[in-house]
Amino acid sequence: MWGIILSIVLAVIIGLIGDALAGHDMPGGIIGAMIAGFVGAWLGALLLGNWGPVIGNFAIIPAIIGTALFVFLLGLVSRLFRQAA
Question: What parts of the sequence cross the membrane (predicted)?
Fold first, then answer.
């Protein structure tokens, strides 16, 4: 039970840090940050591997970099859709 709670809290924190690094406003507030944290951790581990400190099954540094990349790409896609409409 504590593992799930720790994973969710870390996903939110990683999502907020990645959002701050990317310079975009992540839609969805805390839930959006949590989703971005989980997707970013997956993306960071896929692209960069699992290195650095690991807390709650998250490799922190690749997760933050992956989340910043995910939020940046999400911001680009949302801008493209706003311009097309």
Answer: 6-22, 29-48, 54-77
